[in-house]
Amino acid sequence: MWCHFPPRKTYELLYYKTAFKVEVNNERGFPTLNLLLPKQPNQFNNIHYNFRMIRKGTREMGIETRILEVSDDASSNVPPDYGVDVKQVSYGDLGAFLATDEIYIGLDDYHFLERIKEINHEKLLIWVHYFNGASLFFKQYIDWQESGKFRKLSRRVYRDFFPTPLQLRMLGPYLQGLKKRPVFAQSLWTGLLLNRIYNAGCKGIVYNPIDPEEFPSGYEPADRTNVVVFLGGPDDTHLEHTTNFLKEMGPLLRDLEIHSFGSDTYSQRLAEMSGTEIKHHSRITRRDLFALEKRSVFTITPVYGGNFEMVPIESLMNLTPVISYLQPFMEVTGLTDLVANLQNGNLALKLARKWMQKGMGDSLEVMRDRIVSSMNYGKVAKDLVHVTESAIPGTS
Fold it and tell me: Which pLDDT band, with edges at 50, 70 and 90, does 233 fall under?
């Protein structure tokens, strides 16, 4: 199935004072784009919204785009308020879909790549988000303080006693899935890892998309009465740095409410370790989370296991500074006093006090414009189409 464009046209998209142009060349048309969404373990995974926004952007470009949720039993776990149609497909039936002469974008989900290893389709690309196997190479991903002793020991023994070629061989289905298909990454950091660790060529960088219309506008310092903390699980969350920070801030936080989302267990543990009362929000919706961040002086994200991290970006889009680690999302934000490094405790304290004492509205508005200029869903959709055209012969 082919989607024929109307004549060549330029669309201008304006959000938060940031303008860019999306050019659609309709002389040759573009195949239907199918986004293959591996069924996610929970409804709150950000990849749901990545695909929804890509679909929105490519459709605005005139490209017919569908989302196919793929699982073993064709069941679904998309959010109830998703707002777009999603077709559920079993892995057993996926081959029939891939028999069409259309474009398919999948993810480097380990189970997904293993299940499609026998399927050859020259127009199937992989958007790398996870970079599986990182714990085999990076000590940082083994020695999390809250990981179980047995898990730490097994990973450490595995890494120390098995040579790298054998480790790579044990990742066989994943690596083969990357190397037999065109791949592109959601950050420069991920792209470098693909090239230098897995020797898998990276065709380009396509950031996670954002829709500025999701985020409330206006900075009202008088409404800032919270601090919000994002807590992951035992393999990607450090509590020690956050505990020390909360203790050092002490009296300055007396008039602020501490809220958390993510892991309920880790919220309780952080409250006990820091002696701080924390209100946890279980299964919070995006809308409620963004409203909570909008009422916060700053957001703390002591999570350091991903290849981009969207929580800091979403916090800054809500005009709320961030305390986290040095992470790939800083490819977009740059070095800024609106992002504090938890591993530099003294500077984090200094910046947090500054945020509490001074209105940061103008700086945060500039930061939001900067983020939108790189990550607006329309631009990201355009980047994805350009990567696809360059990676697949005969598409451009």
Answer: confident
Cβ–Cβ under 8 Å, residues 17 and 49: no
Nearest Cα to Cα of residue 4 among 64, 60, 56? 64
**115 contacts 91 by C-beta, under 8 angstroms:** yes
Q: Could you say which DSSP state residue 224 is in?
A: -
Please say whether the dihedral angle defined by the alpha carbons of residues 174, 179, 185 and 188, taken in this order, is positive or negative. Answer: positive
Supply 242's token pair. 């956050």
Whether residue 23 has pLDDT greater than 70: no
The residues, any chain, with a CB within 8 Å of residue 354's CB and separated by 6 or more, are 337
Is the pLDDT higher at 101 or at 39?
39
Against a cut of 0.70, is the pTM above it?
A: yes
pLDDT of the residue at 145: 61
Give the relative orientation of helices 310-317 and 286-294 as an angle to the nearest 10 degrees. Answer: 60
Whole-angstrom distance, CA of residue 305 vs CA of residue 329: 12
pLDDT at 157: 73
* Whether 262 contacts 232, CB under 8 Å: yes
- Amino acid symbol at 98: L
pLDDT of residue 310: 95
Tell the residue number behind the tokens 């945020």, with chain if given: 355
| pLDDT given for residue 167 in this prediction | 74
Closest of 371, 364, 240, 353 to residue 302, by C-alpha: 240
Burial of 85 (0-12, 13-18, 19+ CB in 10 A): exposed
Q: Which two tokens stand for residue 143?
A: 């020695």
Asked if 310 and 302 touch (Cβ cutoff 8 Å), the reply is: no
Long-range contacts of 163-172 (CB under 8 A, 24+ apart): 164/137, 167/133, 167/136, 167/137, 168/198, 171/132, 171/133, 171/136
Q: What is the pLDDT of residues 145-172, one digit of tens each?
A: 666 777 777 777 766 777 777 777 778 8
| Separation CA 37–CA 47 (nearest Å) | 8
Q: Which long-range contacts (CB under 8 A, 24 or more apart) does 74-81 make?
A: 75/39, 76/39, 77/39, 77/40, 77/41, 77/42, 77/43, 78/37, 78/43, 78/48, 79/43, 79/44, 79/48, 80/43, 81/285
Q: What is the average per-residue pLDDT within 225-237? A: 89
Alpha carbon separation from 252 to 201, 257, 302, 350, 357 (Å, rounded): 49, 11, 20, 12, 11
